[in-house]
From TrEMBL:
Its EC number is 2.7.1.156, 2.7.7.62. It comes from Rhizobium lentis. It comes from the Bacteria. Keywords: ATP-binding, Cobalamin biosynthesis, GTP-binding, Kinase, Nucleotide-binding, Nucleotidyltransferase, Transferase. InterPro entries: CobU/CobP, P-loop_NTPase. Pfam families: CobU. The lineage of its organism: Bacteria, Pseudomonadati, Pseudomonadota, Alphaproteobacteria, Hyphomicrobiales. Catalyzes ATP-dependent phosphorylation of adenosylcobinamide and addition of GMP to adenosylcobinamide phosphate. Belongs to the CobU/CobP family. It catalyses: adenosylcob(III)inamide + ATP = adenosylcob(III)inamide phosphate + ADP + H(+); adenosylcob(III)inamide + GTP = adenosylcob(III)inamide phosphate + GDP + H(+); adenosylcob(III)inamide phosphate + GTP + H(+) = adenosylcob(III)inamide-GDP + diphosphate. One of its GO terms (molecular function) is cobinamide phosphate guanylyltransferase activity. This is Bifunctional adenosylcobalamin biosynthesis protein.
């Protein structure tokens, strides 16, 4: 395993499970320059309030980059030694790709292919959506399936994988 791969951690969990806080603490404890790549879009006032609250909670010690679509390209632009990059989150990115009609397989493969060349410490957050019932509509089923395949691709590249539930981390890999 290359040194670059040893720098990648994937954190999965449900909504409000504590995964973002856990990821932020990993980055803070690294002592490296903190970068945050936010993939969410404010589709409504409630989502804008969530985004604003997350920014306020992180404070000024983080450099925030908003990137709803071109994640691999933004990672490459931000990447560098002495940096820790937190991506939050893959499922919001996936939603954006689906809403734009992008080729999910191509985008996911590009992201996974980029990971081994990273110089920064990478911490990637995503929502685990495959633990519930089968969704009732095609789009939701497609989303669940795309997320599951994406998580498998990233987990295969990561040296560490955590699952967070009720604020408690379960180390699955590494």
């Amino acid at each position: 395993m290359s040194a670059a791969l040893a720098n990648t951690t994937l954190i999965l969990g449900g909504a409000r499970s504590g995964k973002s806080r856990f990821a932020e603490n990993l980055v803070i404890s690294s002592g490296l320059e903190r970068h945050y790549i936010a993939t969410g879009r404010a589709w409504d006032d409630e989502m804008q309030a969530r985004i604003d609250q997350h920014k306020d909670d992180r404070g000024p010690s983080w450099i925030t980059h908003e990137e709803p679509l071109a994640l691999a390209e933004r990672l490459a632009a931000v990447d560098g030694e002495g940096r820790a990059i937190l991506v939050d989150c893959l499922t919001l990115w996936l939603t954006n790709l689906m809403m734009e009609g992008r080729d999910i397989a191509v985008q996911a493969a590009a992201l996974a292919a980029w990971l081994p060349q990273a110089k920064a410490r990478l911490v990637i957050v995503s929502n685990e959506v495959g633990l519930g019932i089968v969704p009732e509509n095609r789009m939701a089923r497609d989303f669940r399936d795309h997320a599951g395949r994406l998580h498998q691709m990233i987990a295969a590249k990561a040296v560490e994988v955590y699952f967070i539930a009720a604020g408690l981390p379960l180390k699955m890999k590494g």
